[in-house]
Amino acid sequence: MIGFAIFAAFIVLMLAGVPIGVALTLAGSVGIGLADLGWLSIPNNFYAGIAKYPLLALPMFVLVGAVFERSGVAKRLVDFAVALVGRGPGMLPLVAIGVAMFMGGISGSGPATAAAVGGVMLGAMARAGYPRDYSATVIGSAAAVDILIPPSVAFIVYSVMVPGASVPALFAAGVVPGILAGLSLMVPAVWLARRHGFGANEAAEPRPPFWRALREASWGLFAPVLILGGMRMGWFTPTEAAVVAAVYGVFVGMVVYRTIGLRELFDTLVEAAETSGIIMIVVALASIFAYTVSTLGIVDPIARIAQDGILNSWAALAVVVVVLLLVGMVLDGISIFLIFVPLLVPLMRAYDWDPVWFGVLLTYMVAIGQFTPPMAVNLMVAARMAGVAIEQTARWAVWFVFAMMTALIALIAVPDLVLWLPNALGY
């Protein structure tokens, strides 16, 4: 009955439009009060929810995304990609996806990448003859891959919620799935462009000189090497890597490219602080809900499903995939993690799923949700920049969702696609 009261309170609050963090806190408080767990457990768990070392990296990686969005790195990467692949029907969507994937190796933030790449690519694609709703869909879906390619804010949040899933292991595990997801998106992007005759004017634009484009993009190209290579070489931890990346981004923007002045730097710091503050507060509030659910054993029946043999491992995983894909249409990624990870950890342990592998699958499903209407944060950013309604992108988004689902099936069927790199690196 207490469990029913908790979830009933949460659903009612959500339907009433209460912010997700507040709804989780109030629902958890209902359980604490009914079970007489002590009201002091609320402030204690609020603090414990964010007093975790890996979370120190979160605000810095958010800052990295904001800095590189304003620094002009995306434009130089686009010029280099165009110089590399050339121009022709379907090439600009290919460039947009490739640059978004590369930006994921710098910031790990989907909305930041959607804004940075959209600011450069939407105008170029419009001049080349691509419809704005199609262009917004390409950019929004490509930006969703960023939470898979390290560094990833989503992986940091998951690591503090699941014992046995370290940040370095998750970062390494996300590389192959991130690349596979990006490649899967390229197929419908090029096919749709050529099938509908988009990009008829693309070849008329001049192709940037290769060596000049490479030279100008070199500072951006070096950023993932610095971040990931430094962690692998043991020069700094993931948390320290976030600080190094932020300092590097500020140096590139203010000294090298000179696209960021003191005023822009101040605005960037304020923007990153606001975004980080919102995420950290929601994480802290959700920890009260997670404490109540775990302490009262409300999710124990989920684990008994495995113990009693009601569902085998594959059937249970299929149910999880369907539920999370549906939830991803209406909730943002961080909220999905905070609500469902405490519920799914007992199931993960009961079926002996690898926590790193399961974390990557969960993040992959969240990535699909980030460009699946009606609640698609990346698609919302790209559509707003393109000046189109998000409903107009649905006819294109379905093809990209199908492509990502195909890659997801491969990751489920062959777990080594996720685990071989962290195992090879000794994580």
Automatic annotation (TrEMBL):
It is a multi-pass membrane protein. InterPro entries: DctM, TRAP_DctM. It is found in: Cell inner membrane. One of its GO terms (molecular function) is transmembrane transporter activity. The complex comprises the extracytoplasmic solute receptor protein and the two transmembrane proteins. Part of the tripartite ATP-independent periplasmic (TRAP) transport system. This is TRAP transporter large permease protein. It comes from Zeimonas arvi.
